[in-house]
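user:
I keep going back and forth on a fold encoding question. Separate attempts, laid side by side, tell us more than any discussion would. Would you put together a sequence-and-structure record for a protein of your own picking? Write it directly below this note and I will take it from there.

assistant:
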Amino acid sequence: MNIVHPSIERNRVKELAHEAGLSVSGVGPAESFGDELENLLVDRIRNGHLDGFHWFTEERARFSANPKNLHHDARSIISVGVPYWNPDIKHPNDGILRGRVSRYAWGRDYHKTLKQRMQHLHRLLEAEIGRSIEARHLVDTARVVDRAIAARSGLGWYGKNTMILVPRRGSWVMIGELVVDIEIDHDIPLKPKCGQCTRCLDICPTGALVDDYVLNTPSCISFLTIELRGAIPREIRPKLGDWVFGCDMCQEICPYTNAAYHEDEPTFQPESIDHAFPPLHWLIDMNETEFREEFSGTAVMRAKWEGMVRNAVVALGNIGASRDLETLESVAASHESPIVRGHAAWAMANIDRDLAQPALTALKRRETDNHVLDEISAAMFND
């Protein structure tokens, strides 16, 4: 029996996507990416570039290379995006020691926003063709390679920082996919336009961009401040600067992203300036309940309370002064998390080891946790 699949022109799809609040879109096939993508992902895993993502196994990599594993009747994939660049919000020059949050996490959690708008697009498509459409709404967490789909659909091209660069928006775009069982004519993939530029590689503080188009995840600030549970490697902590959630440096330096067109998108506006540039002492003093109340509904929740306090302590150690040693000493002495206490000891020494020595010595006498004791010893003796 031959199944007749409904069809629609891609320009009409883009009009409906825009109506649904998805201002950029492209259409590609739902076919497997084949051996090329599978082999690339497996190579990244075997070379340690994805260490820390224990769930991203070779088996998952191979599964992810074929979108039809998630939707067997898929005929097309609509790749969609919502730009979030807002040049009007800047770091306040108010004398408060503040951390930095990656722009995508300033406002409402993008997973919810994109899924709601893709569901709206789904309904519009069904109304347009006059029948139901079987679809999958995918945002970041499904077993597909979002950026590969976006590149194949012509939404943008891979930049050397591994981000998708969208014309006139750069990489300031949240992306998702609508996998559908309808025929749509495809967009043509865009040619990469990075040329000889290596600004993103050159500016990365930790050297995580080890080559053009190759990111070593374990040394990426975004991974370290969001995904990593436990201790941040000591040798990398000074390179985090004031970042407490994510990092935008390789995006901000990109000529295409730097020239991004501004679209007003209230959903991604921070509720307050403190959600974009949180005061470090405020974060450090927060208990878990206060953290949840403050950041509920935002992507910052991904780092969890312990992770955000750990990150704030490291940032204070990087940009603080001797007047902040008292705060850090209090954290090192009494915080319920051994991870936070250990990072506070490091931060004290990073600000002024000599001045912090008496306090570190006293902390060492009282501490019972082996991890924290190791951190204090390393802080005292510059290990």
